[in-house]
């Protein structure tokens, strides 16, 4: 399938598909005309990529784990492990943000909010 059809089916722009290809998230073969030809299953993969992004995974994480997920004997188990790791990352970040909020709150009204302890 040509890039325009893939982009339309996946709900993406052609530029996004090209960008994903540059990152190695998708691959194509070149036709004699020079056009990119993508496998039909690329549509499903791109939908996965978009869903993973909405769940907080970066494109680098998706690229890093994509091949491992495609080759995993039990995809559900592999995904569960990735989700558990992402939850740990989110929990750590939430704790950091809670501490930052407490620090900022302690400095409100101190006259000089950049001076520790007021």
From TrEMBL:
Keywords: DNA-binding, Transcription, Transcription regulation. Signal peptide: none annotated. It holds the Pfam family MerR_1. The keyword Nucleotide-binding does not apply. Coiled coil: none annotated. The keyword Transcription regulation applies. This is MerR family transcriptional regulator. It comes from Streptomyces cathayae.
């Amino acid at each position: 399938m040509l890039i325009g059809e893939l982009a339309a089916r996946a709900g993406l722009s052609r530029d996004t598909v090209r960008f994903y290809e540059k990152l190695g998230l998708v691959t194509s073969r070149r036709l004699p005309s020079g056009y990119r030809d993508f496998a039909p299953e690329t549509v499903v993969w791109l939908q996965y990529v978009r869903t993973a992004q909405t769940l907080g995974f970066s494109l680098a994480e998706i690229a890093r784990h994509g091949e491992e997920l495609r080759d995993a004997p039990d995809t559900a188990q592999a995904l569960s492990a990735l989700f558990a790791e992402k939850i740990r990352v989110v929990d750590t970040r939430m704790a950091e943000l809670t501490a930052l909020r407490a620090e900022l709150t302690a400095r409100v009204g101190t006259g000089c909010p950049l001076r520790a302890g007021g």
